[in-house]
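Aim 2, interim progress. The first record below pairs a target sequence with its structure tokens.
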Amino acid sequence: MENLTSIQTEVDASFLYALLAEHEEDSNVAHVFREMSEIEMGHAKAFLKSKGLPESDMPGPSGRAKTLKRIGKIFGYDYVLGVLLDTEKGLSAGVLSARKQQNMKNSISDTAHVSILRNILHTNKNISGSSLARFEKRHRNVGGNAIRAAVLGGNDGLVSNFSLVMGIAGASAGSGPVLMTGLAGMLAGALSMALGEWISVKSSQELSENQMELEAEELEINPEGEQQEIALIYMAKGIPEAQAKEMAASIMQNKEQALDILVREELGINAEELKGSAMEAAYSSFFLFLMGAIIPVVPFFFTSGFTAIILSTVCSAFGLFGIGAAITLFTGRNVWYSGFRQVLFGLIAAAITFGIGSLIGVSMN
């Protein structure tokens, strides 16, 4: 079963790289993605062959891979790239395990998928600096996309407020205190998440803007040194020294163009991405937390006592399972395993706070 899982993982990776190639505007990057797709499919074929199975037994893309394709249509395919890079460690582990069981020789490509992709991109002199910067940003911030933020934001809201509501329910006989505490916890948590996200985005923007200002200042104070840096950038891409210096001299005729190249190539900053609003990020975090936190509170609007506690637990369990299932988009783990694991941990946390609440309620009486 583990070998079949590894084959499925390789097939999914091949499918997703091919998907990225199909929707990549930079033809050179698209070519690289197609190469990666072929590498992953080559691994899958090798494992099938080692098991004595014909290629006709090759599985198709899994439901997870098809879901990521639909997500790409909505949020953009850069998000798919982020998720794909985020799952490469798990893919490597599965490949190594399968090779060990089959007594197959390890390959350097088994554990270096991201490194191979980066090396291919960086050694291809036809790939633009902006495309490289986009890839590196996705690599540095793997999993930091809106989909992951939505899942984790909803999880934070649900687990924290579910535990809070159960704690108060254990200590109080009426639904009034539970409802008020649940609403207060929901609002306080959402505001805290929003403020934290605003600070995070704003500080990142300010850091990048400060670096850009320093680069602009250096360009004015030491243009000869910056021109040499530009030449070195092109030489690192494989352009001959004489041609690189000629290109750098030409670029320095336009200070704005020179600054743009230095910011992208030297600092790895895409100025377009700095236009994102910190307030928009804060609003998103606020509502994502709110969506999760409201789930355990809803039953207390309509009923009270033991019935409300049971309904709240059932609703929260369904929510936790959904979040656990959504997490498999990034981990590649089994949906049922991940979903029930999330339910188990959430229920344990709620049971602990309910028990503590009950003890406090008894001692106060």
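The second target in this work package is listed in the same format:
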Amino acid sequence: MDIRINPRALQGRLPAISSKSAAHRLFFAAAAADGQTEICLQGKPGEDILATISCLKALGVNITEEKQSRDETAYTVTPASPMSGKAEKPLLDCGESGSTARMLLPLATYLAPNGFMMTGKGRLPERPMTPLIDELINKGCEFGSKSIPFECKNTPDGGTFRIAGNISSQFISGLLFLLPLLKEGGSIEIDPPLQSAGYVDMTVDTLSLFGVDIKQTENRIFVKGGQGYRTPGKINAEGDWSSAAFWLCAGAINGSVTVTGLNAASTQKDKYVFDILKEMGADCTQNGEEFTVTSKTLKGITIDASEIPDIIPVLSVVCAVAEGESRIVNAGRLRLKESDRIDSTCAMLKSLGAEVYADEDSIGIIGKKALSGGVADSFNDHRIAMSAAVASAACTGPVTIRGADCTAKSYTSFFDDFRMLGGELIK
């Protein structure tokens, strides 16, 4: 689906939708808990969360949903027992969700020790899985392939798992969901540097909510075996800083936007967007869980992408209309996302009239007062499509986004909320 947008300032208030990253983790923990868990989500879940729910159901987890209000849904999760006595091999279709595939894989070896199939689509089969698979093989798992689609069987032994910290923190999170269930437990040795460490912190926080005791040193995580998970009963997934970043950046370039329901103390590193926009010169104010960003003269800065890869595309849009030159560094892992996000971000910006260049690990952007508008390809990447929509607020002409429906991967109601803030879609 292509969408055409007339340039308009974006203004108003929106509640944050639930964090996709938090929701994945809550569902995984609830799937192996000692009783039912009720998980409350704000906003309609995106395709990635639906993929996680579908895979857990295939593993024998019972998940029902009930609307609590127009914007809130409660999911009751009844955990599964290991399918050791069942001959069938469940099919786990992860769609395009790397979070589902990587974090579920270790847990699936426990829930379906006789074997399962894991599949996916889009760019997921190309995204790295080998480091995690190699560690599981070393502990007794058998795989038909080291890339999706594959068949896997056997529950791994406990012990020491070794993972490089600069490819995907999801490998570490996936192992953390498994280790409390193994009789022997184990540890994870991380080859530094650990990038996106905040996502590992989110996993540790989730496990703590379910009564799991974890001990950490600088580059090692210890998990005692046989702990299992103790359900907290009812829990709300926290507001999502990743999606809120699009609206806060829109306020920074042309308008004034308030996002409510955000936790300043969250372990989500994408909360840094607020401080980055403030450093660039935007008018940024906070009142409890409400964060407001209003446009003002912006200046270029250097942004370290290592902890915030998901919001680099939309921050690049802000840089494109900031005075002077901006640099985005330590961005190499963006090449392993739903698209090569260094190339796709640069292509999107250039198509809208920005001056941008890149190398293997960084992006350079020379700011100008306004962008021209034009036709931007989404590259089937939700964050590129949403960033192009935000960029329309800083354009002098219309913006057409090719394949804009990919926003449903993480933010089903994105264009509805875009309209609520004054965005104008041309029919």
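The first strand starts at residue 3 and ends at 6. This observation will shape the mutagenesis plan for the next reporting period.
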